[in-house]
Amino acid sequence: MAFGRSRFAGSSSSSTSGGSLLSKVPLWVLRFLQFVFAITVIGLYAQDLNKGYRGGLYSDSKWGFATATGVIGAVSALVLIWPALSMWAWGWDFVVFILFTAVFGLFAKIFIHEYAGDNGAIKRLKRAVWIDLINMLLWFVTFVYGVVRFFFFRKGKSQFTGRATV
Questions:
Q1: 56: pLDDT confidence band, cut at 50, 70 and 90?
Q2: Phi and psi at residue 165, in whole multiples of 5°?
Q3: Are 156 and 94 in contact (CB under 8 A)?
Q4: Which one of 14, 61, 135, 163 is separated from 51 by 20 to 30 angstroms, measured CA to CA?
Q5: Helix, strand, coil percentages in the chain from 3-state DSSP, rounded to 5
């Protein structure tokens, strides 16, 4: 029994997750890329947190926010890889998109116009800004995909009687 479907609704082999295997592959690829780039964000920003902790310095909340956003993105990408959940989670995709937008804006303002020279940390953080942009765009794409699937391709029957089209 699939999400929101009655076994008496007369549905054929498709479920709420809908579609063929071929229609699910792009979503799987997007979620995999979201996971990989979120892990990359964690690695890029957490090493500065670790250096500050080991050196007895304070941890800057900006780097903590970026790392936490990376963790939220990675866990969300793993959970939402199932298309049945992904169709209903477009709101969460939007929330994660906003989080990565904030991280991108925050670090772009700091590091885009910064002269790196021979400073490896600045070079790394300038690259991290572009990874944030990629994350932001990936989450926006899955948000739009979820909205389109939810509002335009949702053709199910009502849960209890199976007569009304939902």
A1: low
A2: -85, 130
A3: no
A4: 135
A5: 70, 0, 30
